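Second opinion, please. Pick holes in both lines of this record:
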Amino acid sequence: MARATKEEALETRNRIVDAAEEVFYTRGLAQTSLADVAVAANVTRGAIYWHFKNKADLFEAMSERVRLPMEALMGASSEEYAVDPLGHLRNTWLHLLQDAATNERSRRVLDILFLKCELVDRDDPIWIRQQDCYRRGLENMERILNDAVARKQLPANLDVRLAALTLHGQVIGLLMNWLFSPTTFDLASVAGPVIDTCLDSLRYSPSQRRANG
């Protein structure tokens, strides 16, 4: 009986997260209340509060469906990609873009994260979490790029901070453009060439070098 109750609770939790994803995607984050989610999930508001403290907590659970796999890839230790750090970085970004192009759930969650989060309050827990993820993502990218420099995959005088900002801006910009207008181009087919072009710019562009050499 206890096992059945635990499984039922997990099923209810997943149904709530599924409903939140649907309603956030349809109406946007700011325009969605927990009452809206309860109706979509066919549960009471009390059931939602049993599993989640507030809308920010529910939003976080939805976001983790995409964020956790990416954070695991970006947060891999140096030992896990010691032979080819630049290849690891390329595969990480390629996974993000191709997963968005082929996985409906990933696409919807990313659409919510990038296009339907009307964040105006800098004290909002969702805003704070998004800022933290952005900073940690850049830090992880700088770490991998530094390892690539150490392995002589990138120039010794590469401005690693600038390189991380450039690569992040280009890849996320491509993703956001596709989410905004997915019929404009085939993300899955252009992902690899665009990432390779970005990495080539880190290898060869003089503007990516440190001013002091």
User: Anything to note?
Assistant: The two ends are 68 Å apart (CA to CA). The CA atoms of residues 82 and 153 lie 12 Å apart.
